[in-house]
Automatic annotation (TrEMBL):
Region (Disordered): 98-137
Native organism: Halohasta litchfieldiae
Protein name: Uncharacterized protein
Biased composition (Basic and acidic residues): 98-119
Keywords for this protein: Membrane, Transmembrane, Transmembrane helix
Annotated TM spans: 12-45
Length: 157
């Protein structure tokens, strides 16, 4: 027997079975026709895979390789794009944070402002203390001069 004739006869038999499924669908009922038709179709798909593997043994390997490559490309592409999106989000958050030079600048401004206020208070208090010290010195000087004048007057008498 010639393999091509056997394949032709098998394909013809499947065609007859599919036609029988259509007739059963119309005559007996929907459920029986669908069940028989699905059975014939599934067995035909198995037959086609078997035939492809017989005529071209590398066919299944190529198909699986192509499917795996496509799946890997899609998966890796999705994961890489997700990682890139996460990195961009992190970069945006980092960019929104104040930089160290900005922080140092603000700290220096506050320190200068507070230092200026402290110096003003010190100057005010120093001025007040100086005024009080001068008053006390003048008062004590006058008292000493009075005592000296008194002792000088008492010493002359």
């Amino acid at each position: 027997m010639n393999p091509s004739r056997v394949d032709f006869l098998v394909d013809l038999a499947y065609g007859v079975l599919i036609f029988a499924a259509i007739i059963l669908f119309v005559v007996v009922g929907t459920n029986v026709g669908i069940a028989f038709g699905l059975g014939v179709f599934i067995s035909y798909m198995i037959h086609v895979v078997w035939k492809m593997a017989r005529f071209d043994p590398e066919w299944m390997t190529r198909e699986v390789t192509e499917t795996v490559e496509q799946t890997v490309d899609e998966t890796v592409g999705k994961e890489v794009s997700e990682v890139i999106n996460k990195l961009e989000a992190i970069n945006e958050r980092v960019d929104r944070r104040p930089r160290t030079d900005e922080i140092e600048e603000k700290v220096e401004e506050k320190i200068e402002k507070q230092t200026g206020e402290v110096e003003e208070k010190i100057e005010e208090q120093t001025g007040e203390v100086e005024a009080k010290v001068e008053e006390k010195i003048e008062k004590q000087t006058e008292e000493i001069e009075e005592k000296l004048d008194k002792t000088a007057v008492d010493g002359d008498a």
